[in-house]
Amino acid sequence: MANFESILIYGCGNMAGAMLDGWLAGGIPASNFTVYNRTPKPVPEGVEQVNEVPTGRDFDAVMIGVKPQVLPTVLDTMEPLVGPGTTVFSILAGNELASLAAQFPRAHAVLRIMPNLACALGKSPIALGSSGLDEDEKGKITKLMEPLGTPEWLEDEEQFHAVTALAGSGPAYVYRFIDALAKGAAELGVEPGTAQRLATAMVEGAASLASASPLSAGELADKVASPGGTTRAGMNVLDEDGAVNALMLATLTAARNRSAEMAQEARGKD
């Protein structure tokens, strides 16, 4: 069984690059990775980069690093790289296991991975789903993903749509929240640069505390908010008629629905 010591990254964009950075920072040897980019790009020291498709070589895993809409245009060159001993790693939103298996019929197994850019720091949630992997291989995949953050196996692939909305798209919503906090503070007279730094530091500290605390995020919020105090006054605005919960549900629902649409589009191309 593969130990995933020979990994080809086919197209090293922002997300694949962040994963590569996280793996290297976690101590995985650079020699384990080969990057194929049609146009040369900077890659970490020690990582082999090729600008022609590396035919005639065997890889434990081939990771799809191109954008979802690009995959159909490169299948003819990518599929021959995937043999009976190769597991396909996919970070493509909306591409389901059945679609991937149909596109790579000779693959040993297919694996869906849903990370976010924080994997470069080892701080990403990592949702995983597979077809064709036994429990021993799943254990090896979990170990491989641990330098990137927190791996979570999803038994029901349908959950990927909601998890994509939360864990994959979620950082963008947090960044919007930080930006809104900073702009609000600036409107109240705080110098904009100071407001941005304070908002960012506050969210970083709050997230670290939430991660380390046995209390839920809701319990921590109530712990901060003393009755009749300043925090409670602000939370009353967020909580009125369930405003913040309704807003986030609508946000995640829109992202989840788009993920489902992308899956339908990918099925239509099989």
Describe this structure in words.
By secondary structure, the chain is an alpha/beta fold. Helices cover 49% and strands 14% of the residues. The chain has 10 helices and 8 strands. The chain has helices spanning 14-25, 71-78, 97-103, 135-145, 159-168, 170-187, 192-212, 217-224, 230-239, 243-269, and strands spanning 7-10, 33-36, 48-50, 61-64, 87-90, 109-114, 124-131, 149-153. Strands 3-2-1-4-5-6-7-8 form an 8-stranded mixed sheet, sandwiched between helices. Helix 5 (159-168) crosses helix 10 (243-269) and helix 6 crosses helix 7. The longest helix has 27 residues, at 243-269. The protein is elongated and about 70 Å long. 29% of the residues are buried.
Summary of the model, kept short:
With 270 residues, this protein is of the alpha/beta class. Helix content is 49%, strand content 14%.
